[in-house]
């Protein structure tokens, strides 16, 4: 049977930390790996101003989802306009992903389950049941859940459930 083709691959632009970032992300998520690293050769290093042998692109997977990271220089930076959502079933998962991804990140960028990692990439750590807690047809309960969420940095699943009760 043929391998499933992933039609869309997120492409992440880093200054010079693509390989380091990919290794960091792979260390956090199960079912993850570095697939390949293309390095600057003499000609591409000369054309780009990058050191010969430095990583140019890194092809990696996070929980089976492929990504490409590029060392493209300081021309572009990540913004909160794009983020990756990590759906979590338990508080243990929420704590694990929050703690690892926020290591070295900007604590001022932490709100309502959002965080910014050490590379400036935004992540949302979201309890999988949050949509059900917000959408049970009772706007009063949904409002209480949203109010609780807005008061948190890292999601507290027990507190969100209590707000919905």
Q: Give the mean pLDDT.
A: 93
Task: Give a count of the beta strands, DSSP E runs of length 2 or more.
Answer: 7
Given helix and strand content, the structural type is alpha/beta
Order of helices and strands, N to C? EHEHEEEHEEHHH
Q: Strand content of the residues, in percent?
A: 15-25%
Name the overall outline: elongated
Structure summarized in a few sentences:
With 165 residues, the chain is an alpha/beta fold.
Descriptive account of the structure:
- Helix content is 33%, strand content 25%.
- 22% of the residues are buried.
- The mean pLDDT is 93.
- The strands form two sheets. The protein has a four-stranded mixed beta sheet with strand order 1-4-3-2, covered by helices on one side.
- The chain has six helices and seven strands.
- With 165 residues, the protein is α/β, with parallel strands linked by helices.
- Helix 5 (139-150) packs antiparallel against helix 6.
């Amino acid at each position: 049977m043929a391998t499933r083709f992933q039609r869309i691959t997120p492409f992440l632009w880093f200054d010079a930390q693509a390989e380091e970032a990919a290794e960091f992300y792979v260390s956090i998520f199960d079912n993850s790996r570095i697939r390949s690293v293309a390095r600057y050769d003499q000609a591409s290093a000369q054309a780009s101003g990058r050191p010969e042998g430095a990583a140019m692109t890194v092809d990696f997977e996070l929980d089976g989802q492929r990504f490409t990271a590029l060392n493209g220089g300081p021309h572009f930076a990540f913004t909160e306009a794009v983020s990756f959502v990590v759906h979590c079933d338990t508080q243990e998962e929420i704590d694990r992903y929050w703690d690892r991804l926020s290591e070295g990140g900007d604590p001022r960028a932490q709100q309502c389950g959002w965080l910014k990692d050490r590379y400036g990439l935004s992540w949302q750590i979201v309890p999988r049941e949050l949509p059900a807690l917000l959408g049970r047809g009772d706007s009063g309960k949904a409002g209480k859940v949203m109010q609780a969420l807005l008061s948190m940095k890292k999601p507290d699943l027990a507190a969100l459930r209590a707000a919905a009760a």
